[in-house]
Amino acid sequence: MIWQSFDSYEALSEHAAQLLLQSIPAVLGLPTGRTPIGMYERVVAECSRQYHCFRDVVTFNLDEYAGISCEHPGSYCAYMRQHLFDHVDLDRKNAHIPDGTAPDLDAECTRYENEIAATGGLGVTFLGLGQNGHIGFNEPGTPFTSRTRVVELTQSTRVANAALFEDGHVPTYAITIGIATILDSKRIVLLASGESKRAAIERLKSGEVSVDFPASALHGHADVTVLVA
Ligand code: GLP
Does the active-site annotation cover 61? Predict the structure, then answer.
């Protein structure tokens, strides 16, 4: 695991954006949340100067809430449109997000996992870090062998993600790719910024490997870079 520390969120975002752009052409695993917003901003700015920046890119988002559609401002689908998809020349048929409104969510999970496999698996996966160590929506207790599936969110995760939901009404369930799906990526880049992540970063640094701390699964991967600010 390679650790890189930055003096500011801006510097971290700039470096993350460069890593993303340098990996193109690629199959990318993409995160949501507050942390990667600066990375996306810089990627979009850079791509406005380059013709066909995302023409040879396929993306798979890590997760999506169950029961809300792309029209809901709290959905990760809306997030991705706002922060990336609407601003780059990524072919929408190459931009994959689990469908949280699918009538059969288990079937949707199988379809999504198969779709990732059909592209040859994830190339570079960018991850955020939950305060409780979650990656994607793989909450503490998740087996490292897990694949794409429906999960129940912890109360602390729902509180942490309440900002985009009216009355703080965050969905209880979500679809997430599994820890094994993430570990199959050729390369993994984890972004963590701010005081609220300090404890999780220290725990990851300690080297402890435990299902109680999902991000610790990354110690079993040969090519992980952690960017911290
Ligand atoms: C959500 C997402 C995660 C993300 C986490 C951290 O729970 N499902 O993929 O890593 O939030 O978000 P933030 O960057 O806003 O702290």
Answer: no
Q: How far is the CA of 127 from the centre of ligand 1 (A)?
A: 8
Helix axes 76-83, 37-47, angle to 10 degrees: 40
Three-class secondary structure of residue 91 per DSSP: coil
Residue 167, pLDDT > 90, answer no
Residue type, 100: G
Amino acid at position 63, single letter:
D
Longest dimension (CA), the chain: 46
Q: Are 188 and 215 in contact (CB under 8 A)?
A: no
pLDDT digits (tens, 9 = 90+) for 211-229: 999 999 999 999 999 999 9
Q: What is the DSSP letter of 166?
A: G
Whether 139 is catalytic = yes
Question: DSSP label at 46?
Answer: H
Beta-carbon count within 10 A of 144 CB: 18
Counting Cβ atoms within 10 Å, is residue 145 exposed (0-12), middle (13-18) or buried (19+)? Answer: exposed
Q: Tell me the residue type at 174.
A: A
134 is catalytic: yes
- Confidence category of residue 187, pLDDT binned at 50, 70, 90: very high
With the most atoms of ligand 1 within 8 angstroms of its CB, the residue from 126, 129, 176 to mutate is 129
pTM greater than the 0.85 cutoff: yes
Residue written as tokens 């909450």? 139
